[in-house]
Amino acid sequence: MLEVRGLSKSFATGKPLLDGVDLAVAPGEWVAVVGESGSGKSTLLNIVAGLDRPDAGEVRLDGRVVDYADDDALALWRRRHLGFVFQSFHLLPYLSVGDNVALPLALLGIDSRERAKRAGEALAAVGLAGLDSRRPATLSGGEMQRAAIARSLVHAPRLLLADEPTGNLDEAAASTVLDCFGDAVKRVGAAAMMVTHSPVAAARASRVLRLAAGRLSG
Q: Distances in Å between the alpha carbon of 33 and those of 70, 138, 178, 196, 198?
């Protein structure tokens, strides 16, 4: 489902951060990318997400090349096909939990009744049934991250990306979040890629790759 071919990215000095990276992720597979700070993990994730542009190489989703040259098309591609889970949750405090989860559907023009229905189903899938009307501030850190996972899944994305999703959580909450993430990948059938410093989090993935000296190795 996800193919990365010959991806390269260099610093302004010309020193390569990514040097011909190749990667393939199948539907329903969860790949963890680990590496030292500054190794390029987040840069790789951001390029795959269309938030940054490579110097060379290409990213394909379902066989179609991601077009980095057209910002509008790229934004629409992300809106339709991408789910992203961040370390800091990024829930909007002035919206209810349900409305936060439904945001991707609102951006796609889905009507309010259908949005509420799908948001409720997504929350139930991560163990937060009935919390639609709550404000994010009333949730624990683990609950907020599970709500963020629900938001990333509500539009059934083809690609699910996560950047240090357990970085702000204690051990118990992190374990629950990783359970939810793994279940979500299988349920939606998305290709999933997570970057993390945590060997415990990485061990939960289907496959672990290390990024060092600009290259991925298994």
A: 28, 32, 15, 7, 10
Q: Which two tokens stand for residue 51?
A: 């938030």
At residue 59, the pLDDT reads 95
Token readout for 100 is 């936060």
60 by DSSP, 3-state: which? strand
Supply the pTM of this predicted model.
Answer: 0.90
Identify the CATH class of 2-90+148-217.
Answer: alpha beta
Report angle CA 68, 151, 83 to the nearest 5 degrees.
25
pLDDT means over runs of 10, the chain (218 residues): 94 84 95 91 93 93 88 90 90 96 95 96 94 95 94 93 91 92 89 93 95 91
Domain positions in the chain are 2-90+148-217
SS3 category, 22: strand
Residues 6+ apart with CB under 8 A from 58: 4, 5, 6, 7, 65, 66
Q: Is 100:151 a contact under the CB 8 Å cutoff?
A: yes
